[in-house]
Amino acid sequence: MSEEILNISNLHISVEGTEIIKGLSLTINKGEVHAIMGRNGAGKSTLANALMGHPAYSIESGEISYNGRPLEELEVFERARAGMFLSFQYPSVLPGVKVGTFLKKSIEAVRGEPVKQKEFRTQLKAAMQLLDMDRSFLSRYVNDGFSGGEKKRLEILQLVLLQPTLAMLDETDSGLDIDALRIVSKGINQVAPQAGCLVITHYQRLLDHVKADYVHVMIDGKIVKSGGPELAHKLEEQGYDWLEADA
Amino acid sequence: MSDEARDIVGDYRFGFHDEDKSTIRFDNGLSEQIVRDISTLKNEPEWMTDIRVKAYHHFIERDMPNWGNPEILNNIDFEAITYFLRSTDSTEDDWKDVPEDIQNTFDKVGLREAENTWLGGITAQYDSEAVYHSIREDLESQGVIFLDMDTGLREHPELVKKYFGKVVPHSDNKFAALNTAVWSGGSFLYIPKGVHVEMPVQAYFRINAENMGQFERTLILADEGSSVHYIEGCTAPSYSSTALHSAVVELIAMDGAKIRYSTIQNWSDNVLNLVTKRAHAMKNATVEWIDSNIGSGLTMKYPAILLKGEGSHAEVVSVAYAGQNQHQDTGAKVHHLAANTTSNIVSKSISKDGGRSTYRGLLQVTPKANNCRSKVVCDALMLDQDSRSDTYPTMEIGNSTADLEHEASVSKVSGDQLFYLMSRGFNEQEAMGLIVNGFFEPFTRELPSDYAVEMNKLLNIKMEGSIG
Predict the structure, then answer these.
(1) Distance from CA of B301 to the nearest CA of A (A)
(2) How far apart are CA B337 and CA B331, in angstroms?
(3) What whole-number distance in Å separates Cα of residue B53 and Cα of residue B34?
(4) Which domains does chain A have, with CATH numbers?
(5) Which end of chain B is more exposed for a tag (fewer CB within 10 A), N or C?
(6) What is the pTM of this model?
(7) What is the rounded (10 degree) CA torsion for B191, B196, B198, B200?
């Protein structure tokens, strides 16, 4: 039997009084990868940020349950502690906060208990090897002076270390060259079997590396079409126009 | 602790006090007689008495500074202050001989643990005088002199006479005059030629009695090619009445010497902290002020370095935290008086809960000083709308070969930063703690690791009950 992680029904979300998500439903079970594709402004990032609890996005109606529990009850940090993770499209710079310190504190915050240094080191080493990251990353300040690719890699490093139940990836592939894309995909693939994954992307190419079970097309705040990986290929060839005509 | 006391103490961990068991406590108030009595009690040479009396008269005549925080300065009741209080009859070199409550106090502030693990020597001053002093034998055998200033004057009068008041004359400002008149305690540190003191030495200044004025006087001489790291820490009980801390610190780094002076100032907020710190750097010498101001109601302090010798270097890294009812008016002054001198100034301030921070800096390059380089970075972080931050950088550049950089920024914690951190499991307070720890990192990375950890904890406590 499939294990339900996220259930969204008829969700409406607005930002500063403007409705962005206009009646969206989606169910994600454990072990499933759902890709959401769509043009800029379709509401993809709004969905991910609202699910994580960004205060700028207000949920006007509809229901979201996470692990069988109403999501609205949880504050942002409680969502993280309950196993939700968002890989940011534009992660914040934290001047003076070293990556190593940040990662350890974050794991401790999410788990709610101290982590032994030795255990942390072992996990970190394995994860950094997987993502082909140099140790020198650890003594840099979080995202400070990072290239776009380095930022995304650090997001995926956190994904791997935090082992979330629901992993949301907001355009993690954008701006990555093909090597970086492959590496980032390794991280996602490692986490995917134990989690529900929501992958937001513009491009089909990520899906060459990360196998999506479902592809959803989002237009103007709604999922207008769902299908398998073949849908992504069709979008790549034909664009969104054929769907917009129906929408 | 009574509830009332707890209310006053709030989140300040060091606000407790011991019962006043002083063996000598002068009546409150200041007069020439009080000044003479201090000198007599300490059995000082006549020249020191004369300096004190002269300084006293200068203090009386000298105008109060009309900048910083005149409102607070003009309301200081100098008659309500105790100018001298002796807690124990002698400075001990074994903690067993120090009264138990005083031992416990220095235990609670963490000094004794640091002494046992990584310091080369300490002086523990309690109100007016040192109650305990130690120095590692290997330092002593290399000729390092580390004493409280009173003992320093008794045992090395020639050295003291030669340098006392030469870097900060009594006429420098009203509070330097006051300190010179009534000084008591502080450190006297001499490092012989070529000696590198590997372990830091520390002085801890604790105010205990109510209405106390603490006026320590510190003189550090690093002889040619020597180096030393001196640390000072300070805390005080929380009282509703004002205490005054007015120190003078004079450093001389001779040719090729290096002095690092680190301050962890965490006075209770009833303390007015009005301090003059200045250094002379001779040829190829380096002076570093690593200065933090976390506590006190008002601090006015601008560590200065006169780059007197060619090739000398000045480094000032300072942080200030201004919370409720606090004004940190701090900064740095660097005077490039010789050629090929360099300086680097980093100043960071945080204001929260209506606190006020002011950066006041001076960078001077004199006409003769060719090819000087200087970089000044001033960053302010405001944690709420009620707080205030001002920057007054002054530059007097008299030589066109100078290479100068100046950067200043005022920032707020962004909603995006908070959201990012909270999405990684940190609650709001923990997120703020990480952000302020990061903001002060250029300072804390300069501290010995134990103190860096303490500093970060202290800032995290300050973030409790943060932004709503």
Answers:
(1) 25
(2) 19
(3) 10
(4) 4-90+148-156+164-246 (3.40.50.300)
(5) C
(6) 0.91
(7) 30
